[in-house]
Write a structure and sequence with these properties.
By secondary structure, the chain is α+β, with helices and mostly antiparallel strands. The protein has two domains: 291 residues, D-Maltodextrin-Binding Protein, domain 2, CATH 3.40.190; 238 residues, Periplasmic binding protein-like II (D-Maltodextrin-Binding Protein, domain 2), CATH 3.40.190. It has 19 helices and twelve strands. Helix 17 packs across helix 19.
Amino acid sequence: MKRTAFTVLLSFALAAALFASGGQSQQQQSSQSSGASIVTPPGTFPVVNTPISLKVFAGGSASIENFETNDFTKFYEQKTGIKLIWQVAPPTSITEQRRLSLASGDYPDFYMAAGITKDEEVLYGTEGVLIPLNNLIDTYGYWMKDMFSDLPDARAMITTPDGNIYSLPMAMDHLHALYPNKMFINTEWMNKLGLQTPVTTEDFYNVMMAFKTKDPNGNGKADEIPHITEAATGTAISGLWRYFVNSFIQMDANGFLVDKNNKVDTAYNKPELRQALAYVNRLVSDGLIDRTSFSISNAELRQLAENPGAQIIGSTVTQAPSSIYSMTSDRQKNFDAIAPLRGPGGVQLSFLDPSAQISTGALAITKSCKYPEAVVRWVDWFFNQEGLMDMRIGREGIEWDWAQPGDLSYTGAPALWINIGAQGGSTNAFWMQYGVASYNRHTKQKGFFDDKFYASEGLNTRLYVYTRDSYIPYKPANNLPPMYFEADVLNPIVQPLNDIGNYVNQMWARFATGDLALTDANWNNYVNTLNQMGIQNVISAYQKTFDTYLKNAGK
């Protein structure tokens, strides 16, 4: 149904008028005392038989001018019969305000896009602050059940060790986000020098050496940077390591690997990891990886990428060229993603981040909520095509329109819709790209396999093609999923995890830059230090948690 001005049916207007008339509290009490359900059947509107109000703690967004006066908010209040009383935490203080709220004892009816962590779900779920959603999903969910059908692992990913679900997720089907660390290489330089796409780690070395010595930017200066990648912050493993290590041994975002028997181990202390360090050290020592890759920020890398004069960057590891280049820049058109490199032992694996598909904590209901079934019914529509488009993408005919017959989505399937308005800045017309509910199954946005492939509007198509052709074929056979830890399992390893993360980042950078030689003595000292820090206890904790995950998943 086309809705360009958020028009509503008369019955919704009458429901809103009833709410405004002051009859709400009496009817709520009557519903509770009689035991009658306040909600209408799943998949129907309005959501409630009698208008109600619910308090929500919402994470703020710079893209949404004002939740209370937003056109979509007012439309959805009338459509559902549910008025929200907003407590909006600014983006800069969501974490602090959420923590204060959870510890206060004075809870909203539900939290939305507030960044609730897995640890908080376990803690406040087992304490009874957050209520289990299992039966609510099964009884009152309608469109959200499509997500669980399409993503069989989704339910296990949002189930805590006690078997309960305490939050609804954001579920995404942007396939490229599962493979966030791709190698982008300057194909203009490769074509100019007559180079073939590198397949092995040795091929890559040779291409980088040509970039360094053969003046591919043609300015007569030795100013080319063959490879540079943004450094990680905190204890995170940088994209450089995520890409190169997987040519020697499987490694996930936390340094772990899983074998075919579901045994958890770490790559940190393996001989293959030492080989990866030696390879990167060779590239750094020969001036093929810029030393600032272990310290440079994204802002600094962007400035370097867009420097005046000739283009100087030959390759980088990132999720998309837009991470360092403006999509209006001609320079980004020179970069294409290549597959993971095959190492000397035949290992050739993509770095996979399964948390990119299912993000927990998008919506959680508290024990203070009198009508939890109404909250589930309220959010359910956002898992639906129409609700999703209205909430996240905007107004039909203004921000988006239906695709034409024959249009293809960026996955090559028939397209459903196409952007016709700018997505950026802020608006008071809809909840632009707000982080609640799912847009899985509904991202069949028109793709561009033509001359717009390298343009801004073709970016999703471009990333999908790279992922499909160069990264999915090298997906690891087994991988640790995002998991919930029980408090008694997590608490003893919190400090060791932090210490190990800092130590690994420090030592890998020292080994790579030659600040510390990769001798037997230094390597053995590194491994022994990991043992002293409790690496085996960390592995055991992950194994126990993974076993619980597999049990909940029925595997």
